[in-house]
Write a structure and sequence with these properties.
heterodimer; A: about 325 residues; alpha/beta; Rossmann fold; seven-stranded mixed beta sheet; five-stranded mixed beta sheet; 11 helices; 14 strands; about 20% strand; B: alpha/beta; two-stranded antiparallel ribbon; 8 strands; about 40% helix
């Protein structure tokens, strides 16, 4: 018996629908069809009237969730692809995110974003949006990398009183498996040391955690111990865990699948450089995707995003300084 | 199907039998106008920071919408809806607290002027992005339906310019699909800031769009208070009885600039002197005089003036926000305690 990352997301939604009458799901094709990736399969039948197909109206989908949240519900909006959430950005960034600050009243909603690259998906079905959402105050941005986190963090997201952007990685949906659903969770907003090491810290999140772990394995054969830190939640950012790791290793490589201008990896480097400068034995380095739209062909795509090979090369560069 | 009221329907002359009916709308129009005149003065005296956006000339349409709602309904006004707010029951001090930045106001100085609301009263605080409130009110109504709350109506206001946004379209279409008790009131005042209708849309009548959305449409002379009263009450009741979204288009002019910083000099003289440029307050005053209610009108005006002066005095003495007491937190999550490096 095993559970995939996608099944964990479906199970978390099922549990939330069962336990909390305020929860409902709204999105394109999420009803009887079960969603483009089947993240809501069978949920419409099990919870009649609470898993609703929406028109192709990302702005109104998010706006509707904002209103429902103001009225005390706990809406989950599924974007078919993270990329399409740009159409709903206004409602998320200017409405959901400002409500608590402006009114003192909560706006508890979850925006689920099927994120990140998969082979052949191209410029409009591959994006990672965490940098944009994290830039705006008033939103929690989660980027789970494991089956366990996909389950526990989604339940957490639904319970939080704030708007949450839940970036789930499509590459992990079907292939990432675990024995069973977890019974306990890492504390909210805390990063996790995935693999301990004393020579260099690799801070990353989402699917890149698995690439980083593979790179750490490669470096181990060369005699280096790489500490891999999974941020789990990029906003708020667990600076303490990152600094504590850099204090142990003295070196940092921050990796993100998204574009190089700004973003979570830049924030990690900025914080370590300004708050932990004296902990460093080498200049901190960042590794991101190339600064172009995401390519369609697998040959180009594999070279566009960071991979274990590129991460290993980046780690070596910092280690050799 | 689009139901158009007669192009030039004059109001049913208020009679002494239904003075109560007339009084509600008359007082609402007067309170809004007197308050907004005062806000203009406070702006020119430098007492208000930021913009001041008034609804002069639009009080009948707006006020009728607010008055048509009941307690428990939802109202999401736009920038020219002082009358609707007062009609729905927003206390006058809330407007002044938002404009003067009182800490006791619903927005506590964190947001100002027309971006105020009070969710506990069912008044949604608008964001500046036009059309955004349509889907938001739809969401409140979906939530009420899921909770089993019956007989509630949501009403939101827009201008001719907002009808060009994707948000407006997406929101109204969503509400139509869900057959929600939503009333969308479009105050077509001929100009979106300075842009005239002919640069805004190409259809002959905005209300004709109702058919395309599959909702009921109503057009009304927005300068005619009693016609507004009738049409808005009808539309709200249609929504309440389950007839789905209602699109109401009122034609009128704003009798001021876009904001108090703007003199509105781009509004064509011809349009100002047309029937569309009538002042709904004057129309109502004339009707009152004709029926011998001059004294009542005068009393209502004086009462409104006293109320405004008292509210200004009260709010002027209230504390303003203090940056050292502000907690500077944009989220409520208990664990979210990180202090940003830049701060």
């Amino acid at each position: 018996m095993s559970v995939t990352y996608l099944e964990a997301i479906r199970s978390a939604q099922e549990k939330a629908l069962r336990d909390d009458p305020r929860v409902f799901i709204y999105g394109q094709d999420v009803g009887r069809f079960g969603g483009a990736f089947k993240a809501t399969k069978n949920l419409a039948e099990k919870f009649p009237g609470r898993v609703m197909d929406s028109p192709i109206s990302e702005d109104a989908m998010v706006g509707m969730a904002v209103g429902a949240a103001m009225e005390g519900m706990r809406p989950i909006v599924e974007m078919q692809f993270a990329d399409f959430s740009t159409v709903g950005l206004n409602q998320m960034l200017n409405h959901a995110a400002t409500t608590f600050w402006r009114t003192g009243k909560p706006c508890p909603m979850v925006l689920r974003l099927p994120s990140g690259g998969t082979p052949g998906s191209g410029p409009f079905h591959s994006q990672s949006m965490e940098a944009i959402y994290s830039h705006y105050p008033g939103i929690v941005v989660m980027t789970p990398a494991t089956v366990e986190d996909a389950y526990t963090m989604l339940l957490e997201a639904i319970e939080l009183p704030d708007p949450v952007v839940f970036c789930e990685h499509k590459l992990l949906y079907y292939h990432l498996k675990s024995e069973a659903l977890p019974e306990s969770a890492v504390p909210a907003f805390r990063a996790r040391v995935v693999r301990a090491g004393r020579d260099i810290t690799c801070v990353t999140y989402s699917a890149m955690v698995h690439e980083a772990v593979a790179a750490a394995g490669e470096l181990a054969e060369e005699g280096y111990e790489v500490e891999v830190v999974d941020l789990r939640t990029v906003k708020p950012l667990d600076t303490d865990t990152v600094l504590a790791s850099v204090a142990r290793t003295g070196r940092l490589l921050a990796v993100g699948e998204s574009w190089p201008w700004g973003g979570a990896s830049a924030e990690v480097v900025a914080r370590v450089a300004s708050e932990g400068f004296e902990l460093l034995d080498a200049p901190p380095k960042r590794l991101n995707a190339k600064d172009t739209p995401i390519p369609y062909h697998p040959n180009l795509w594999a070279a566009h995003r960071p991979t274990a090979v590129r991460i290993a090369a980046g780690l070596r560069e910092v280690l050799r300084y | 199907m689009a139901i158009r009221t007669e192009k030039r329907s004059h109001p049913a002359v208020p009679s002494s039998q239904n003075l109560d009916y007339v009084e509600k709308l008359g007082r609402t129009i007067l309170r809004a106008r007197v308050l907004e005149d005062k806000l203009g003065n406070l702006y020119r005296a430098g007492r208000i920071v930021g913009g001041v956006y008034l609804g002069k000339g639009q009080e009948a349409l707006s006020g009728a919408g607010g008055l048509a709602l009941r307690k428990g309904d939802i109202f999401a006004p736009l920038i020219r809806d002082m009358a609707g707010r007062l009609g729905f029951g927003e206390p006058m001090v809330d407007a002044l607290r938002a404009y003067l930045g009182s800490r006791l106001g619903p927005m506590k100085g964190r947001d100002g002027n027309i971006h105020r609301g009070d969710l506990t009263r069912g008044i949604l605080p608008m964001i500046s992005h036009l059309g955004a409130m349509v889907s938001t009110v739809a969401g409140v109504l979906v939530a009420k339906r899921m909770k089993g709350e019956k007989g509630r109506v949501g009403l939101t206001c827009a201008g001719d310019g907002a009808t060009s946004t994707g948000s407006f379209h997406e929101g109204l279409n969503l509400a139509a699909v869900e057959k929600l008790p939503l009333v969308v009131v479009v105050a077509d005042n001929g100009y979106a800031y300075s842009t005239p209708n002919e640069r805004q849309f190409a259809c002959e009548h905005l209300v004709d769009r109702a058919k395309g959305y599959g909702v009921e449409g109503h057009e009304v002379d927005g300068t005619d208070p009693m016609a507004c009263w009738k049409v808005l009450h009808h539309a709200v009741e249609r929504a309440r009885e389950g007839a789905g979204p209602q699109l109401v288009v009122g034609k009128l002019l704003r009798l001021c600039g876009h904001g108090e910083h703007d003199d509105g000099s781009y509004v064509e003289k011809k349009m100002k002197s047309s029937d569309r440029g009538r002042d709904c307050l004057k129309v109502m005053e004339e009707e009152m005089k004709k029926k011998g209610h001059e004294k009542e009108w005068q009393d209502w005006r004086e009462e409104a003036q006293r109320e405004v002066e008292q509210a200004v005095a009260k709010v002027s003495a209230e504390p303003v926000p203090d940056p050292f007491e502000e907690d500077w937190r944009a989220t409520q999550s208990a664990g979210m305690v990180e202090v940003m490096v830049a701060s």
